[in-house]
Fold this protein.
Amino acid sequence: MPIRPKPFVGIDLGGTNMQIGVVAPNNQIVGRARKKTMAEKGQASIIARVVEGVQGACEQAGIAVSQLGGVGIGAPGAIDPASGVVLEAVNLRWNNVPLARILQTKLKVPVLVDNDVNVAVYGEWKAGAAKGDRDILGVWVGTGIGGGLVLNNHLFAGGFFTAGEIGHTTFIPNAPLGRRSLEQTCSRTAIADRIVSLIRANRKSVISQLTGGDLSQIKSKMIAAAYADGDKLVSEVLDEAALFLGIAVANVVTLLSIPKVVIGGGLTEALGEVWVKKIRKAAREYAFPERCQAVQVVASALEDDAGLLGAALLAGESFKR
């Protein structure tokens, strides 16, 4: 009698939110949980919330945690996937955290850990916007900026396990500290900080009304609404960020001859195709040589589900070996 395939849980652990889903063998998400990460409460609290989320998603799916084939988790920052250790996660304030071992002890099922954007790119490659492509770059713009690479039909980590970390590349070396990397310049956090600082310097923006005057409450949806409304300040900041992102993408396209780039993350989802179009334009303008200007730059097809689906699929593939 054939062995019945087991479901896997996928976890997208972000700096702001965590998404958890039970993925059935047909790749359908049959149970979910979403929680705030609350990184400021520390490592133990985050891990406890992950465990609660896995239990809640399994309960919604009508299964026990013990019935899972395993768990895949995408965590932000530099990861050693072979050992399941989070080497450094700036947004979580983690260093050398043996996440796979900790979760495996608590959940009693196999656990795979990889970079959060790596698993999202894996999801897009297996079931989304890059299905069937051999070489892709993924760039996710959210709390921070992460990247992932599929090269020659393999998720590529590199010798130091940091391949694709485009957000931590130095972009403006002579800028003030805290404004030098791509992430410090173009992430949602950086964009929101720039908008707020300009408003406080007496620039006018509808963001002041959308936040009710509390500029600490600025969200991606507010930025997107102001952008769609043609707000001059927000448009200036976002258009500059799109230009910088496009140039960064062009550099990778030129370096690795990548024919397809997938742009994802919370800010991208909020802004939509108009944002991706501007990144695409800059990427094609700055890519070299001319034939690289045919690069496809597309939006994530799986959007919010890319990370959790990719983590589950990667875990399923890994634990079958």
